[in-house]
Each structure stands twice: as structure tokens, then as C-alpha cells.
Amino acid sequence: MSNRSGKAYALTTLCPIRNGHEGNMSFDKITRHRIQLLEEDSGSPFARIPNTYFARLFILNDVFFEQGNDVHHDHLKSKYLVFTSNFHGDLKPYLKGMWDNANDTVRSIWEHAVAFDKVRNSDDFIAYIRKCQLTTSLFFNGSTDDELRFQLKSLYIKQAFSEFVLAHQNKSTSELRTAFNEFMQQMQSDNLNDVSWIPGQTRLSHLY
Amino acid sequence: MNRPLDLYDIQGNICKGYGRFGFPKARYFFLEFHDSGFAREFIGKLLPLITTAETWPAEGLAGKPRSTTNIAFTYEGLKALGLPQRSLDGFPQEFKMGMKPRAAILGDDGPSAPEHWDPVWQGDRVHAWVSVNGQAKEFVEQRFSEVESLINQSHGGVSIRPGHRGPDGNLLAWQDASAVYENGKPTPKEHFGYTDGIGNPYFEGCGNNPQRLAGRGKLTKEGKWAPLATGEFILGHVDEAKEYPLAPEPHLLARNGTYMVYRKLHENVQSFNDYIDNLARDFDGSRDMLMAKLSGRWPDNGAPLTLAANDAEKAELDARMGQLKAKADDGDACAAGQLQALQARWIDFTYEQDKDGARCPVGAHIRRANTRASLETTKEAFNSPSALDDRRRLLRRGLPYGGEHGAATDESEQGIIFMCLGASLERQFEFVQQQWMNYSNDFKLGNDRDALIGANNGQLTDKHIVQADPQGDKAPFFCTHLPRLVETRGGDYFFIPSITALDMMAQGIVDPT
Ligand code: HEM
After folding, report:
1. What is the ipTM for the molecules in this complex?
2. Whose CA is nearest to atom 34 of ligand 1?
3. Is the pTM for the entire model greater than 0.95?
4. Interface check B431 vs A, CB under 8 A
5. List of chain A residues whose C-beta atoms are within 8 Å of the C-beta of residue B477
6. Is A45 exposed, middle or buried (0-12, 13-18, 19+ CB in 10 A)?
């Protein structure tokens, strides 16, 4: 088992949440509540973390068994904050990017995780996450291992091209050539920073 | 193996499409119950009129009644009849909810949204569906009057719920339906001009002629057609998972009954004609061929595209049919046999030789509706080639409505009263409607929707692809800007009880304990 596949990295972390509460809300509930309030799509804090393909946060309350009551069951000693992310590149720079670009979110979501109060800077954060890391090789199927902006650009051009095809059916060869040249210019295929999907985007406004 | 079915205990519309048996006219009306006692008494009196699934001769009218009568209930209706709570609790969630709250699943948005449905569907007051089919309109009306007088004798316990939009925008107390007539004769046409009513599942014990099995059953590992398990269509019998379908208690309430979808589907005939005319100008083929590439069958005679994929092949097929018919009419037994074998191929086919859709497009209506083993993309991936289809088959029992009043527009009243039956509304009808008609992941066609009935909105990417032969030099053809051709105008989910269950309901002795 490996956390790497080519240039893609699959991170799985389980951070224990402190037992205790604030008012009538236990720490795990407070954490879940904060997760549920995070923005989605391009407003998501994950969209700000460079090279994130796919990330997910949830609370693991306990483990479930399907056998009857007469079997010995182990249970979790605490609740866990589970963070999984698939991204491009190495773990350290990724976590530094996370700390630098989504700092408020990280502090608020991890606030009640055991020993997180000792985390002061990106080095601490990297060390903390590595302690909680599991080796899993849980990769997200819908992605290659390319840099995110490269993948977003590919998706963009693929979708734009299918619309181009639909919009130019039955055009004469010369019309088609002109239109296609225009299309290719419009695409700016070497420009990975623009004329593309933005991270977290799930829908494209139509070109034609 | 299921035991032989007790056809006298099963309502007739489950085993027969009456249209095919010489009943081209129908009236559907909906009841509201105001008093459970009187409503039960009414059901008791209606019982002798209910048509069962007893076997009829396929040809001719001898040995058949002149009209038929069947009844089914919504969940609200079963409640109003006073069925015990424990029996009610056993019905599946989607049936309890009824059709309107399922709008998001069914694609009933925009012009199809429930707030635009005919007034009869507003509120939760439709308790029962009654259908009368007849060999002629007068027989429908006779039987309707008989039922109406039973309603009038119900001391106000039962009333007909009016509010069906009729031809001139007026509201009617019932929904009439009729085969489309040409030259005074009923045809199997619907109002877009397609030949309909060909494909339907064949299941064990259905009482239909075994000659109808090929192309209508399921495909075995050996590549043979076999009847589908009874439990796919009738409760209380083993289904394709070798289980009894989930059903309410007591056993006798559910056994030999089933569920029915009723949907009034308006056809925007003007939009359809305009769209096809317009697109046909760019299309390399006739208007009929373009129509066929949307549905999967040629409009004039229903020949499947697997049999004739383009105009040239169609002309050849028609000529061959013509020759064989002429010879057969002259008493040539050999030609008659060949003709029969050729006609069998109208239904006995798969998409095995057409994986790329160069003959029948992968997104054509009939290929979406009944995938005929084409979802097994790797040989022997499943227990049998049609394993992914066998639990999604639909028994269709509809008839066209409207269209009698001159040239059809989008505003005039015409369409199909779509009814389909099965042991699970969610697994069969809802799945097909949501995943196969309004989505295409299973077909690797992205977000494309069915060209005829999909919830399309006229956008560039509302498209249907006519695939080309990957070996050939022709480009695929894209039908873009698909408009909303079919709109939902109402409907609900119904339970069709057996004769035994109806009798128990009438007597008020349904007892789940
Ligand atoms: C106004 C609406 C509709 C029109 C005009 C229409 C038209 C047709 C036509 C022309 C055929 C080919 C004839 C045949 O094979 O019997 C067909 C077949 C079929 N349709 Fe529809 N249809 C409509 C609605 C629906 C809906 C809502 C469903 C299901 C969700 C559906 C499911 C089927 C099935 C299962 C078949 C048989 C396919 C086979 O066994 O090969 N149809 N329809």
C-alpha cells in the first residue's frame, strides 16, 4: 500500500477530538457544525489550497458491526475528525499550502482536536498531520496525476470542444477551418491560468 | 419456477394490453371517497363488473366482453377506505408519497411541474382509478353509466372527481382515450406519428401466446429468451432476485396485485413537427429516417433500426415484405413462413451487433427504455447478459388521447395516457425515468436525455447523438436544441388489488394480524 500513485498523493488522517463540551454542545458536535457550514464549490476553502483534486472532512463517531450482540466488539475511545485529500505533488508543500491559504478554516475545524492547541505554525501543522496520517492508497477515480491547473484546462477544452462541434455541424470545410482557428485562439491552450475552470467549479457557462 | 397463475384472481389489465385485443376506446375516471362504509359497499357492488385476466382468443371478438372494467387505489384511497394502519404501513415509501412529491426524481419540472397539472390532481383527493375499455365508444359509455349509477347509489360515499382538461380547455369529469384512427380504422399510432405498443415484457404465467416470448422475455446465458419471473410484475410471486417482492400484510392483500403508474403525457405535436422538419434539412437521410433515429423504430410500420438502419435498407425491407405478402396471399405456404419469420424480427433482436449505435443510436428511446442486454459490455460479466435490465422492465398499458379536433398544435389536447405496471415503482418505473430517460451515465452519453420524453429545454447541449459507424467515413449527427416535446399533465401511483383483496376490502375484513 502506498499513498502515492505517480504524482498524485492520497492523504488520509484521523485526528482524535477531545472529549468535553462548550455549553450543551460537545466538541465533536461543534466541529461537525462548522464543517457543515463550509462553503461549497468554488467558494470552498479547499478550492484555495493549491493542487487539491478532491478533499473531504467528516466526523467518525464509532465503528459499526453487522454481527449480533454476542460477538466481542471494539469501539473507538474518542470521536475522530477525518480529513482526506487527493492532490498533486508532495505532502509537505501541500500542507504548507493548506496552512497558508486556508488558515482560518484549519484553525476553526481543528480547534477541538487533541493537542492541536500546540500547533503554532506551518511546521507544527505538518508534523501534527503526519502523526495522524494513515497509509491507505484511497485514490479518487476521476482524476489523473497531473497538476490541477492542467487538469482543469483539459476539462475546459474538452467541454468547450464538444460545444464547438455541436454548434458547427454541417458547416463547409472553409467555414469550419476559420471557426476552428478562432476557437483554438480563444482557448489559449498554453495558458494554464486563464480561459479555464477555476478550482471548485462544477458547471461551465455555455460558450455558444 | 412459479406455480401457474390464478388468472381469475388477477385484474385483466395486468396480463393484457386491451388495445391489442380489439378494445381501441377507453375512459379513465377517478373517485373520491367520502365515507369508508359506503365506499366499501360500492366496491362490493362493482366487483362483479371487474374484468379478470382469464385467457381470451388473440384474434376476433368472440368470447370477449364488449367492455372491460378495472380499479386501482392511491395510498390516500386505501386510507380513506379504512384499511388497518399496519397494512398501510407495509406499502413502499414512493407509493405512500404519491407522484407529485417525486417530481424531482421524475424530471417533472418547468412546464411539467405539478402546479401546472390538470385540476383533478390538485390536492390529495384522488382515491381510486377506474378504467373502462371498449370495443367501441358506445360500449364504453354503457359501462360507464353502469358504474355511474353504482356511484349514485352510494349515499354520497363515493363521487367522481372532475377536472381533466378537455379539447377546448373545458374541464371534464373523465379522461377519454382512444387509438389513433386512420381511414376509420384503429391504428397502433401515437400523435407524433410513430407506431407504438410493440415492445412489452413476457413473464411466466402471463397467459400470452408463447410465440410472443422471443424479444420480450429475458436473455439467458445460452443466448435464449426465457420468460421473466412473475414477481417482477405481480406481488406474491418470486421475482428475478428469487425473492418475494416487498408487500404489505396480510399476504392476501398483496398477492396477485401490483402497482401502476398513471401519467397524462401531453405531446407538443407542433414543436415536434417543426423540430424534425428543421433538422431534416441538415440530415443525410429522409424525415422518416430521422424520426426513427430518435425512437429506434421506423414511424410507418415500427420496423426496428437493427433490421433496417437507413433509407436504402428500409426500402429493401419494404420491398421484401411486399413480395412475401403477395406470394403468401396467393397461398404460397413457404412465403407465408418466411413472412412470419421476418415479422418476428420486429421484436426478436438485441443490440449485440450494434455496440456503437451505428444502426440504432445508443440514446434512442427504445434502447434506453429496454436495454436488451447491451449494458453487459464485457462478456459474461454478469450471471446472464440481461441481468441489469431484468429488474427494470415495464409493462406498458397506455393509449393515446385527444387529437380528434383537426390539426394538432402544442396547445391542442393530445398525448399518451401512459400507464405502466410492476412490482416496484421505485426500482422499475422511477429508475428508468430518472436514470435512463433523463440521464445517460449508464450509456456513456453524459447528461443527454431522451429526445422524445426527456426534460429538455431547447439548449445547444440538449442533444441526441446519431452515432456513425466507427469504420465508415460518415460523421455522427448531433440533434441539438431539443425542445420539451412531452409534458406531464398529471398522474399518480396506484395499487391494483387482486379480486380476493378487493372482496376483502369491500367486506372490511383486511386483517394484518
Ligand atoms: C408521450 C410519451 C411517449 C412516446 C411518444 C413514446 C413512444 C414510444 C415508441 C414510438 C416506442 C416504440 C414502439 C414499441 O417498441 O412499442 C416506445 C417504446 C417503449 N417506450 Fe415509450 N413513449 C413515451 C413514453 C414513455 C415513457 C414515459 C416510458 C418509461 C419511462 C416509455 C418506455 C417505453 C418502453 C419500455 C418501450 C418498449 C421498448 C422495448 O421493449 O424495446 N415510454 N415508446
Report:
1. 0.82
2. B369
3. no
4. no
5. 169
6. buried
